[in-house]
Amino acid sequence: MAPAKNHVNLGFYKGSELSDSDGVLQGTGKQMRHIQVKKVETINPDLYISMIREAIELNK
């Protein structure tokens, strides 16, 4: 997690390999992607937990 003035980024190493059917991942790096959270109300816990679990499997 990386805090900024108006948002927080939840970053994923190997994020370019994650499933992103909802289109929430941002970034153009070869591997790194992130979810940018600007409002608490926009957090989707089920989606984020699913992506975190997938990221854990990718990084084993």
Helices and strands, in order, run as EEEH
The percentage of residues in β strands lies in: 15-25%
Q: Main sheet?
A: 3 strands, antiparallel
How helix-rich are the residues, as a percent range?
10-25%
Overall SS class: alpha+beta
Outline the secondary-structure elements.
Blueprint: E1 2-3, E2 8-12, E3 33-37, H1 45-58
Antiparallel strand pairs: 1-2, 2-3
Protein name: DUF1801 domain-containing protein
Domain YdhG-like: 5-56
Pfam families: DUF1801
Account of the 3D structure:
This protein is α+β, with helices and mostly antiparallel strands. It has one domain. 23% of the residues lie in helices and 20% in strands. A hairpin with a 4-residue loop joins strand 1 and strand 2. The two termini are 19 Å apart. The model has no long low-confidence stretch (mean pLDDT 95). It comes from Halalkalibacter alkalisediminis.
List keywords for this structure.
60 residues; three-stranded antiparallel beta sheet; alpha+beta; globular; 1 helix
Question: How would you briefly describe this protein structure?
Answer:
This is DUF1801 domain-containing protein. With 60 residues, this protein is of the alpha+beta class.
